[in-house]
Amino acid sequence: MKNTTPELDSITAQADTLLKELFPICRSITGDGTRTTLRKLCEVTDFHLFEIPSGTACYDWIIPDEWNVRDAFVADSNGQRVIDFKQSNIHLVNYSIPFEGRLKFGELVPHLFTLPDLPTAIPYRTTYYHRDWGFCLTHEKFQKMDRTETYHVVVDTTLEPGNLVYGEAILPGTSGQEYLFTTYVCHPSLANDNLSGVVLWTLLLREMRRRPHRHSYRFVIAPETIGALAYISRNEAAVKALAGGFVVTTVGGPGRIGYKPTWQGDSLIDRVVRLTLRELCLESVEYPFDASGSDERQYSTPGLRIPMGSICKDKYYEYAYYHTSLDDLDFVRAEAVIETLNVHLSAIEKLEQDRTYRSLNPIGEPMLGKRGLYPRMGGALRQKAAGSQGASELDAIRWILFHADGQTSLLDIAEKTHLPVKVLADAAEKLAASDLLVEV
Ligand code: ZN
After folding, report:
1. CATH 1.10.10.10-classified regions of the chain
2. Average model confidence (pLDDT) for the chain?
3. What is the pTM of this model?
4. What's the 323 CA to ligand 1 centre distance in angstroms?
5. Does domain 6-64+163-353 bear CATH number 3.40.1190.10?
6. How far is CA 196 from its chain centroid?
7. Which of 60, 120, 243, 289 gives 177 a disulfide partner, CB atoms 3.0 to 4.6 angstroms apart?
8. Which residues hold their Cβ within 5 A of ligand 1, which is an ion?
9. How far is the CA of 178 from the centre of ligand 1 (A)?
10. CATH 3.40.630.10: which residues of the chain?
11. Alpha carbon of 427 to ligand 1 centroid (Å)
12. What is the pLDDT of residue 378?
């Protein structure tokens, strides 16, 4: 039987609506499709939008001209569209320059892209920084094209000075620690990579606004690579001060939850995610850190070195439909996005619950009974039948008092003892209220 609540049903329905509404839009690293997407997301939960003009330098890169598409097709001599942007926006190589002409099949072929190994899929290709044009189509359709035809090619695009758009929200906290959640919004009609990430990011921001939190959270949504560079170049000091973060990407596939660790491999982010997956008893897969990937490529460079992890569900590169038309809304489901959203929320809870305490009674055990912290009847301790709830709280109390040296955190204790972080955090609060501990 399915485990649902009205709240879960409602957020799943919202994720489903967003996926369906945003999937058809033609997005890119610039252009009206990305702008429209960001504006629609702002209606779900408000965040600031920033526009950076074409030509602006961002470290070694320059914001390119803005790209927009009116129409694009390849038609046969009867005017029949053989490849049509209006049927699928990934038919057109993203960032194709304007072109119009009549080409023999042999002249057209260098501009056509297919996947012989996945013959029913249209591949997704881009040409952001090399001025060219092209079309993508299924290998099946390519094989059926008339080799004797002269084709009419129309790429009715504009590539003109404009702006790159990104969004940002900051949820201030009191702890002095700030964490980043960033996602990229530049892929056209592709569901897992990365509309799923865009939807999760938005619902996570809205959920975090509703929850009390002591850390600060910075939410960034930008085109991949150039958008991250634009963001960092305008917020370098704030980025350098980040304690860590997550690249939210590919979170809605049918496969297992996956984790790509930070470049350090044992940062607080990694430890929190591993504890989360262990506590949720999720069958998951951990990938090795890889220098190719998403925007951790920018945030973790030598001058920044921010530990950035990614909790995925069918991680980019790892599924057969990656960067093809088969990465669609049959592959990605709202329920999967919400499952991964909940893993993110659970990891955030652990970041929030992690504290370090020093014992105020450091020599000898304090007497718990006189403070109401010990079961009234002795002897039942460690007997499984005695009730696991009480036993695990007493276990938590004992372990916390044992480790309360002012250096060992609750996360350290959870790793050593396999006790849930929440049980430890609740027990530590009781001990602090009884003046046995003080937070350092
Ligand atoms: Zn991608």
Report:
1. 356-376+388-439
2. 95
3. 0.95
4. 6
5. no
6. 8
7. 243
8. 193
9. 27
10. 6-64+163-353
11. 44
12. 65
Q: What CATH class does 68-160 carry?
A: alpha beta
Q: How far is the CA of 226 from the centre of ligand 1 (A)?
A: 13
User: According to the model, what pLDDT value does residue 384 have?
Assistant: 53
Query: Which two tokens mark 405?
Result: 């040296």
pLDDT over 50 at 390, yes or no: no
The Å distance, Cα 113 to ligand 1 centre, comes to 17
Could you report the per-residue pLDDT of 256-281, keeping only the tens digit for each?
Answer: 999 999 999 999 999 999 999 999 99
Q: How far out from the chain centre does Cα 77 lie? A: 45
Question: Which residues sit opposite 83 in a β-bridge?
Answer: 74
Cα–ligand 1 centroid distance for 138 (angstroms): 19
Distance 359 CA to ligand 1 centre (A): 50
Centre of ligand 1 from the C-alpha of residue 346, in Å:
26
The string of pLDDT tens digits covering residues 350-376 is 999 999 999 999 999 999 999 989 877
Side chain identity at residue 129, one-letter code: Y
| CA 194 – ligand 1 centroid, Å | 7
Q: Tell me, in angstroms, the distance from the centre of ligand 1 to residue 316's CA.
A: 7
Answer CATH for 356-376+388-439 from 3.60.20.10, 1.10.10.10, 1.20.272.10, 3.20.20.105: 1.10.10.10
The CA 392 to ligand 1 mean position distance, Å, reads 45
Domain with CATH 3.50.30.90 in the chain: 68-160
What distance in angstroms lies between residue 249's CA and the mean position of ligand 1's atoms? 9
Residue 56 has pLDDT above 60, yes or no: yes
145-148: Cβ within 8 A, 24+ apart? 145/82, 145/105, 146/76, 146/105, 147/105, 148/105
Q: How far is CA 333 from CA 12, 160, 299, 313, in A?
A: 9, 36, 29, 11
What's the 83 CA to ligand 1 centre distance in angstroms?
A: 22
From ligand 1's centre to the CA of 35, what distance in Å? 18
Rounded to whole angstroms, the Cα distance separating 378 from 402 reads 20
Strands 244-247 and 178-184: parallel
Instruction: Output the pLDDT for position 2.
Output: 55
Residue 385 has pLDDT above 60, yes or no: no
pLDDT digits (tens, 9 = 90+) for 301-341: 999 999 999 999 999 999 999 999 999 999 999 999 999 99
State in Å: Cα 356 to ligand 1 middle. Answer: 40
CA of 408 to the centre of ligand 1 (A): 40
